[in-house]
Amino acid sequence: MKISAPELAHAEGNITYRVAVESATGLQPLWFSLAEQYTELVSDRADGALAALLFPAMVRGEDIHVEGVLSERLYYNLSGRCQALLRSLDPTLKTIKIHAPHLASATSESTAKSTGVATGFSGGVDSFCALVDHYPRYNPTVVPSHAITHLLYNNVGSHGSGGKELFLNRYRALQPFVKTLELPFVAVNSNAGEFYNGLPFAKVHTVLNTTVPLVLQRGIRVFLYASALHYAKISSSGAGGTAKIDPLLLPLLSTENLDAVSVGCEYTRAEKLLRLTEVPDTYAHLDVCCASHKQGGNCSQCDKCLWTLVALEAVGALEHYENQFNMERYRQIRDRYLPEILLGDHPRSGELLTLAASHNYTFPKKARLFARIPLFLKGRQTFRHWRDRLRKQ
Ligand SMILES: [Zn+2]
């Protein structure tokens, strides 16, 4: 795979960072595009392009030749340890060589003045918690070196088949709230996800999202990545996506100019939600939904919506978020959803039950009754199993 030196071009009010990618599958451009007003953020280094293409090259076992100027630190990390880490998560990936004759070893003149601290913002639990912890309006004690100055909204594959239209709809839905924060809200469109050949975004989101601040490292110095999992769940083995290795992977995607940092791993999702209930600005803007909807808002029936609603109810904060959810729909579904939590069948049952217990929340009688039915059936099956075995002896 050959990656050309990046070119920056202005057109129709946008600036586009573009490289040509020549690989076994042909010639294809890789690009990142954003509003021209953010031109001063855009780097001319090959760092973002290489980070975006490492995983696809490892899938195909293709060595990479980088023609542009590349961070020496990124070259060192991606050549060795980063590949070993990704392979421990996905052993089908192949180790490849990176050839990069133009390494930059120190902070270049063009990036020396970068001061930005950026984080992605989607209105979800993880990104809202990162904002609450790192924006001085919500946390006056945040250290200046990690106080958020820019919010990012990326289209690097997370919007699925909804593509650019869904990306823009979701971005516009968040704009009124972000305007009240008086922070730049930088929408970055890209075709980087197309190089992943249908691989689920959840499997590689950390890498793809970090390509954006790498492209913007002329103005962004720190990238705070809102991680989804608690430190206790961090592991480089077994199935799963890069969320399991965020705190290990992000330093390996950093350069002399950009520190990519995992934030939020000190909380469970339940603890993050509890933190958000203390911030009234979240009441009208929390968006946790995973359903593929075009207009934004919470469907109130997908797993993420239901888990959140139960957690909010358990801590007595449901009334604050009533306008963000369809409460009638929730009340219709709740008692059929709760047995899954009560029986421990849900991956986040434990933290929700702990949260409920710490707030002396009693689950509704009907739900507790439903929860006993599968146990009863399971008990009967066990009885029949042993009865049949004894008859055979
Ligand atoms: Zn939903």
Q: Beta fraction of the residues?
A: 15-25%
Number of strands: 13
SS-based class: alpha/beta
Helix amount: 25-40%
**Overall residue-averaged pLDDT value:** 89
Instruction: Tell me, briefly, the overall form.
Output: globular
Regions with pLDDT < 50 over 5+ consecutive residues?
Answer: none
Q: Gap between N and C termini, in Å?
A: 65 Å
Bound small molecules, by name, code or SMILES, are:
zinc ion
Give the topology.
Layout lengths: L1 E2 L3 E5 L2 E10 L2 E10 L11 H14 L3 E3 L3 E2 H8 L1 H9 L8 E2 L3 E2 L11 E5 L4 H10 L15 E6 L7 H19 L3 E6 L10 H15 L4 E7 L19 H4 L9 E5 L5 H8 L26 H12 L12 H16 L6 H10 L6 H28 L1
Parallel strand pairs: 1-5, 5-7, 6-8, 9-10, 9-12, 10-11, 12-13
Antiparallel strand pairs: 1-3, 2-3, 3-4, 4-11
Helix pairs in contact: 1-6, 4-8, 10-12
Zinc ion binds next to helix 9.
Task: Explain what you see.
- This protein is an alpha/beta fold and about 400 residues long.
- The protein has two domains: about 1-265, no CATH class; about 290-370, no CATH class.
- It is about 40% helix and about 15% strand.
- The strands form two sheets. Strands 1, 2, 3, 4, 5, 7, 9, 10, 11, 12 and 13 form an eleven-stranded mixed sheet that branches.
- A hairpin with a 2-residue loop joins strand 3 and strand 4 (about 25-35).
- The longest helix is centred in the last third of the chain and has 28 residues, at about 365-390.
- The N and C termini lie far apart (about 65 Å).
- Zinc ion (ZN) binds near residues 289, 291 and 302.
